[in-house]
Amino acid sequence: MAKLSKYPDKQIDTITQELIAVFEKHKSPVDLSLVVLGNMVTNLLVSSVGVNQREILAKTFSDALLNSIKNSN
């Protein structure tokens, strides 16, 4: 999703592939996968981000997601 990251591409790709494998293992349809990913994002924001920054980070994340699907053509 992100064009620039402080994390190595290999690390991002490895984690992404592991998450995809979990969804495939459970034969998770797209809508269930999106619910699970949304719950994970919410959990990360609530458990790891200060109250004052949550909405800002959620907005930044959602904007990046929208941009990534607009530019995927």
Polypeptide structure, described:
Belongs to the UPF0352 family. It comes from Seminibacterium arietis. Pfam families: DUF1414. The protein has helices spanning 9-25, 30-48, 51-70. The chain contains 3 helices and no strands. The protein is mainly alpha-helical and 73 residues long.
Features:
73 residues; mainly alpha; globular
Helix-and-strand structural type: mainly alpha
The helix-strand sequence is: HHH
β-strand percent reads: under 5%
- Euclidean distance between termini CA atoms: 14 Å
Number of helices: 3
Helix content: over 70%
Largest sheet: none
Number of strands: 0
Family: Belongs to the UPF0352 family.
Organism: Seminibacterium arietis
InterPro entries: UPF0352, YejL_sf
Protein name: UPF0352 protein ACFQ02_04650
Give a brief rundown of this model:
InterPro entries: UPF0352, YejL_sf. The protein is built from 3 helices and no strands.
What is the fold's blueprint, element by element?
Elements (H helix, E strand, L loop, with lengths): L8 H17 L4 H19 L2 H20 L3
